[in-house]
Every structure is written in structure tokens, then in C-alpha cells.
Amino acid sequence: MTPAPMELALQSRRVTRVLLDFDLSIEFAGGATVAFSEFVIGDVLVDEDNQFEGLRLAAALVGRLCESVAYAESGELTIVFDDGTVVEAASREEVESWEYTGSDGSTVVCLPGGDIEVFSGPSDPPAPIPAVTALPSVGATVVRIAVGDKSTVEFSDRSSVPAAVSLDQAYLVLRESVAEVSEQQIALSSGVVIAVPQ
After folding, report:
1. How are beta strands 178-181 and 185-188 bridged, if at all?
2. What does DSSP say about strands 132-133 and 159-162: parallel, antiparallel, or unpaired?
């Protein structure tokens, strides 16, 4: 007998941020996230080849409420938002397609080939290691861009600055190294300058 699928606690939750590192993740109020290696939003397939377009499209979800969420035994995931936007992810043969992480640490993963694996959250979850709000060191690399309620840029040295990156320039920011730092700005190797809020 197949166990009942684990509920993904997203219904009626507001999208608070969209994060881009190696996957694109949607973060919901309460801390639950769904990370995607590939998904469809509207009629656009988003994968590693056009993740910056995906960031722009998904950023429009900030503030939207999840109306419904469902996943099938074969790995398909569907999230419907209150404005009618639908995000869908099918299973992939070569990599994990999507991963849900609940605010309690529980996880549902669509493995390569579509198998679903479910992990309960730890009974005593460890505190997350936060990025430190501080200026990065020269040579550190941008590892994550977050847009939404708390827009930030995170660096490989675990530093983070609150900053809104232009979605048109995101491809010039992610994975770029820090060339110069001052109290007012961070210059990246791509030539993009990130203003540091005072």
C-alpha cells in the first residue's frame, strides 16, 4: 500500500521572496520554500539556460497567495496562485526537479525519474546558520540573489547586504566576484556596482 502524500503547507501562504542561486526558489510566509531545477510559469519553461528570465517571472509572485498545491506520485507539482498564475514542475530524468522544505524542516523531493521521497523534520531542528549582514571581502563571490520582502545579495564568505538588484542586471551579479568594497558600494568584476544602504 502506497502511503498518502505529505501535505505541502503552502495553501493561503503569501510569497515573501524569490531566491536564485543554482536553483530558483520561492519562499512563503512562515519559511517554507520550493526550489526548482526546472519549471513552467505561464507558458515559459524555466531551467538553467534562462534562470534570469525565470527570476523576473517568479518575482512577480511576491505578495501573491497560494490557492492550491498538489503533487502526483509520478513527480508532477502544480502550484496555483490567487491571480491565476500556475507554476508546474514535471519530473526530470537526470536531476531532482523540485524540493519542498517546510518551516518545520520536513522535506519532499522529486528525485530523478519522478520518484518522491519524503523526510520528516527533525524533532529538535538545529538553528539555521544565518548570513551575516556585513560587507563582503574582496574576492568573495555572489552566491544568491533574493528579491521580495527582504531583498539581499549573499556572498561566498557568508556575508550579506540588504540590496535590491535590478532584475535586468541579475545575470551580471550572480556568481561574480567582489572587486572593490567601500562603506557606500560594492563593485563587482562585471562592472556592476551594488549600493550599500546606510
Report:
1. antiparallel
2. parallel
Cα distance between residue 69 and residue 75, in whole Å: 13
What is the spatial distance between Cα 161 and Cα 198, in angstroms, rounded to a whole number? 11
The model carries a pTM of 0.87
* Beta strands across the sheet bearing 39-41: 44-46, 39-41, 86-89, 77-81, 66-71
pLDDT one digit per residue (tens) for the chain, 198 residues: 344 556 788 989 999 999 999 899 999 999 999 999 999 998 999 998 999 999 999 999 999 999 999 999 899 999 999 999 999 999 999 999 999 999 888 899 999 999 999 888 777 766 666 666 889 999 999 999 999 998 999 999 989 999 988 888 888 899 999 999 998 999 999 999 999 887
Q: Are 172 and 188 in contact (CB under 8 A)?
A: yes
Q: Give the whole-angstrom CA distance, residue 195 versus residue 1.
A: 56
Q: Are 195 and 181 in contact (CB under 8 A)?
A: no
- Grid coordinates representing 101 are 522544505
How many angstroms separate the CA atoms of 31 and 19, rounded?
Answer: 13
Judged on CB neighbours under 10 Å (0-12, 13-18, 19+), 177 is: middle
148's grid cell: 521580495
In angstroms and rounded to an integer, the radius of gyration of the C-alpha atoms of the chain is 17
Neighbours of 133 (CB within 10 A): 10
